[in-house]
Specification:
CATH architecture of the largest domain: Ribbon
Number of strands: 19
CATH topology of the largest domain: Umud Fragment, subunit A
CATH class of the largest domain: Mainly Beta
Shape: extended
Helix content: 25-40%
Order of helices and strands: HHHHEEHEEEEHEEEEEEEEHEEHEEE
C-alpha cells in the first residue's frame, strides 16, 4: 500500500509486456522482439535502482512500443466493455445464487423486528420535494395522493409489477383509472380502498405516506455446512406446503419467519410464552417477543397446531416449525404445519435498506 503509483504502473506494464511476448512471439519480427526485450530490461534496471526519472522515461518508451505494435481500435473498446459487463453479471448472479440474495419484507408478520409495507393515511399534503427525497433515502418512504376527478365507483384493484420488484396497483373505476405506487393489500388494509366504494368528484381515494418493507440480505451459504439454529430468522420457499396459495405469475412466495422448532423438538404455546421441550424458549429473539412489552405482544395460540395451552406438537424429522414475531398477525406453522428441509433458502443476515429503524444485523 506504500508503493508509489508510478512503480505499480511500471510493474503492471512489465507484466503486460511479458504476456504480449508470449502471445505474439511467433508473429513478431526480430527487431520488434529485441526492442520489447530491451525496453523490459531497461525498466527492470530502473526499478531496481529506484531512479524515478529513468523509471518514467523507460516506462513511457516501452508503453509507446507496445501501442505501436497493438494499435487501439474502436472494436477493442467495445469488446473490453462487453467483457467487463459480462464478468460483472456473472459475478452478481453467482453471489445471488450461492452466497447472498436480497429480499423485500412484504408483510407485517415479523413486526416490529422487521417491517413490512406500512401505510400511514392522512389528509395533509406531501412535504416539499427535498424532504421527500431525504425520507425516501433514510426511511424508504414515499407519498401517494389520489383524488377522484369525477363521480365514480371503484370496480377493481389490479396488482402491477415493474422492473420485477416495483409493486403498483391499478385502480379501475367506471370512468377513470389510476396507477398507484402501493400494493393492493396496503391500499385495502391501511387506506380502506376496496372495490365497490363510491367516490364523488374531489374526494380523496388514497392520500398519505407508505414505508417500504425492510430490504434484507439472506445468507444462502452457511446452511450448506451448518444446521439451522433455533431462533434464526430464516427465509424459505412455500411450494408443496398445504394451505399457502401460489401466485400464478410469480410462483410460490418466499416467507421469512423465526425458526422456533428443530426436528424432534416438542412445542407448546401458553400465551404469551413459547415452550420448547418443556422449557421457555431461550434466546434474545424469543425473550423479546415473550416479554409482551409493546409493540411486542407475546405468542398467540394457533389454529391447526398449538391451539390450546395443553396441546403439544413434535416437529418431525426433516421439518422446521416457523413462527412470526408478530404472532397475532402472522400466518405461520400454527396454521399450515412444518417447513420441509428442502424449502430452506437461508438465514436473514442484515437489513441493508432503509437506514432506519432496523438497519444492521438481524437478531
Amino acid at each position: 500500500m506504500f508503493t508509489s503509483r508510478q512503480v505499480k504502473h511500471s510493474r503492471l506494464l512489465l507484466r503486460h509486456a511479458r504476456k504480449y511476448l508470449r502471445y505474439k512471439d511467433d508473429q513478431l519480427s526480430s527487431a520488434d522482439r529485441d526492442q520489447i526485450t530491451a525496453g523490459m530490461k531497461d525498466l527492470r534496471e530502473a526499478l531496481w535502482q529506484r531512479d524515478r526519472e529513468r523509471i518514467h522515461s523507460t516506462a513511457d518508451a516501452l508503453d509507446k512500443t507496445l501501442h505501436r505494435l497493438t494499435p487501439v481500435t474502436w472494436e477493442s473498446h467495445w469488446r473490453e466493455n462487453c467483457e467487463v459487463i459480462l464478468v460483472a453479471i456473472v459475478v452478481a448472479v453467482g453471489i445471488r445464487s450461492y452466497f447472498l440474495q436480497p429480499f423485500k419484507i412484504p408483510t407485517g408478520s415479523m413486526q416490529p423486528t422487521l417491517n413490512g409495507i406500512i401505510g400511514y393515511p392522512g389528509t395533509a399534503p406531501a412535504p416539499n420535494i427535498l424532504r421527500q427525497i431525504g425520507e425516501f433515502i433514510v426511511l424508504g418512504r414515499n407519498y401517494i395522493n389520489v383524488v377522484s376527478r369525477e363521480d365514480d365507483q371503484l370496480l377493481e384493484i389490479q396488482p402491477r409489477k415493474m422492473f420485477f420488484f416495483l409493486t403498483f396497483s391499478q385502480l379501475i373505476c367506471q370512468r377513470q383509472k389510476y396507477l398507484v405506487y402501493a400494493p393492493p393489500d396496503t391500499l385495502s388494509h391501511d387506506f380502506n380502498v376496496f372495490p365497490g366504494r363510491i367516490y364523488h368528484r374531489g374526494d380523496i381515494i388514497a392520500r398519505g405516506a407508505i414505508d417500504t418493507g425492510d430490504q434484507v440480505f439472506v445468507d444462502k451459504f452457511s446452511y450448506n455446512f451448518v444446521k439451522p439454529h433455533r431462533g434464526d430468522v430464516f427465509v424459505f420457499r412455500t411450494n408443496h406446503i398445504p394451505g399457502i396459495r401460489e401466485d400464478p405469475e410469480a410462483g410460490s412466495p418466499f416467507y421469512i419467519k423465526r425458526l422456533a422448532g428443530l426436528p424432534g423438538d416438542t412445542l407448546r404455546i401458553d400465551p404469551p410464552f413459547l415452550y420448547v421441550n418443556g422449557r421457555k424458549a431461550e434466546g434474545y429473539g424469543f425473550a423479546r417477543v415473550m416479554s409482551a412489552k409493546p409493540p411486542y405482544r407475546g405468542y398467540a395460540q394457533g389454529h391447526e397446531y398449538l391451539s390450546r395451552p395443553d396441546r403439544m406438537f413434535t416437529v418431525p424429522q426433516h421439518g422446521y416449525f416457523a413462527l412470526g414475531d408478530n404472532s397475532y398477525n402472522s400466518y405461520d406453522s400454527r396454521y399450515w404445519g412444518v417447513v420441509p428441509e428442502e424449502n430452506l433458502v437461508g438465514r436473514g443476515l442484515l437489513v441493508y435498506w432503509p437506514f432506519h429503524p432496523h438497519w444492521g444485523v438481524i437478531r
